Structure to design on (478 residues):
């Protein structure tokens, strides 16, 4: 395997020319680089940290590893016979060790061979645009490599946690998403500022690991962009877990005291904790990318069209979180494939075979809490705002399958948003234990614009929770 550096006789690093340069080897960048290589494009990928990116080491994988043991324990407690076998709390040290195993001990050597097998050249270091189709990479040893792309440069550097300008917050050394997913200990008391996906998932993970957690949300509901049933049922569940959920929380100041404790001052009081997690959104990692070369402002998202090409330069593409369209790993991977196909088509004198239209109308997402929240497409409010005549079908998750999950009572709900004029599904939401695996069927229905009259012939298996589709279609009179 080569590291992308070529040297002249004097030992100085020489310029390297390839067909395409991908800056960032997270999931989106890996997909783009691999697909370009599959099409015969000589491709180099630049990575300053670890191949696999945040998703593999500080986001999706470690967060779910921290959540899964608590979910499994509670699932067992809901089933007679299994409940009697659960005799104690989670073993926090064992959970943290499981997390470390899930991220391969923060070692990316297991992911690098995939790039090598594709024939993709890996260049370690920080990449920066320095000219048209030119990326300069500074390695950890101070050496530089200049990569010139014959066809395209793809930016895939992801996003970082945003820290709001609250007085004292930065000086208090708060945890961000990276810190909480890589934590070496479970704090006795934790304050979480922000109730987005990161805040909600880590609130529940650390509550079930033994922390006393206070969740601070500025608004008046959890997950306000989703169907109301999601926020309502999740609020009930977190409260039952022992979380102190505070709505309308106005954080005025944060200070870390001499003894290491953190005091969060609110408009109506204080909260004292051992650590504070800031989960107040994300910002694109574009500060050091040299966007000035194409007239863009560093620190902001890179605007792109539906082929993921920059509006400022025909050779520049941006995929994943860095373009600000949809901050989800699977959508970044989807964009990587679309961008790669567009680059190859244009390099060969043709037109892109497809565009990333799913980013607008069919984005699936799962909040991996307990209950899970799985949603795709438009909510009823979004559909109405878009001008659709809407029918909303709602039902609880009462099926034979959900009874087997929790005989004493299954907390859950399902919503279908239907375009009344065309009788097709515009959006779907499922809330409940283990509902995430229902989501792809809804995604296919939304993407395929399957009429309800046809969906009735997609017969769900008995006794599974997918029978909720029958209940929803009955609500529709189909």
């Amino acid at each position: 395997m080569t590291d992308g550096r070529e040297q002249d006789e004097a030992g100085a690093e020489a310029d390297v020319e390839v067909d395409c340069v991908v800056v960032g080897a997270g999931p989106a960048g890996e997909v783009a680089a691999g697909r370009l290589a599959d099409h015969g494009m000589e491709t180099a990928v630049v990575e300053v940290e670890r191949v696999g990116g945040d998703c593999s080491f500080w986001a999706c994988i470690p967060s779910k590893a921290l959540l899964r043991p608590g979910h499994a324990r509670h699932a067992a407690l809901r089933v007679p016979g299994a409940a009697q076998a659960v005799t104690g709390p989670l073993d926090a040290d064992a959970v943290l060790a499981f997390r470390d195993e899930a991220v391969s001990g923060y070692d990316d050597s297991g992911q690098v061979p995939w790039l090598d097998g594709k024939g993709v050249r890996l260049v370690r270091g920080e990449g920066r645009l320095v000219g048209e189709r030119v990326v300069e990479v500074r390695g950890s040893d101070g050496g530089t490599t200049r990569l010139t792309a014959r066809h395209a440069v793809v930016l895939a550097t992801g996003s970082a946690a945003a820290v709001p300008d609250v007085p004292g917050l930065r000086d208090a050394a708060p945890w961000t998403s990276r810190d909480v997913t890589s934590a070496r200990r479970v704090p006795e008391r934790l304050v979480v500022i922000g109730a987005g996906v990161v805040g909600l998932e880590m609130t529940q993970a650390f509550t079930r690991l033994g922390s006393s957690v206070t969740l601070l949300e500025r608004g008046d509901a959890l997950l306000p962009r989703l169907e109301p049933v999601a926020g309502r049922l999740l609020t009930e569940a977190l409260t039952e877990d022992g979380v102190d959920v505070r709505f309308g929380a106005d954080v005025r100041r944060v200070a870390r005291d001499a003894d290491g404790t953190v005091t969060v001052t609110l408009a109506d009081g204080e909260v004292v904790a051992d650590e504070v997690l800031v989960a107040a959104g994300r910002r694109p990692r574009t500060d050091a990318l040299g966007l000035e070369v194409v007239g863009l402002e560093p620190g902001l998202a890179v605007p792109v069209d539906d082929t993921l090409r920059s509006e400022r330069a025909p050779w520049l593409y941006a995929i994943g979180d860095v373009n600000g369209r949809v901050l989800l790993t699977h959508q970044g991977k989807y964009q990587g494939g679309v961008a790669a196909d567009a680059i190859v088509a244009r390099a060969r004198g043709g037109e892109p075979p497809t565009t990333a239209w799913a980013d607008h109308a069919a984005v699936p997402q799962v909040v991996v809490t307990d209950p899970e929240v799985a949603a795709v497409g438009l909510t009823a409010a979004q559909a109405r705002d878009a001008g659709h005549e809407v029918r909303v079908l709602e039902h609880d998750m009462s099926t034979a399958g959900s009874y087997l999950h929790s005989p004493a009572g299954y907390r859950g709900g399902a919503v279908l948003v239907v375009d009344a004029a065309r009788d097709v599904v515009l959006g779907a939401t499922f809330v409940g234990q283990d509902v995430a695996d229902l989501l792809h069927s809804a995604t296919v229905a939304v993407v395929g614009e399957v009429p309800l009259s046809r969906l009735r012939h997609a017969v769900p298996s008995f006794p599974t929770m997918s029978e909720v589709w029958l209940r929803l279609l009955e609500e529709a009179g189909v």
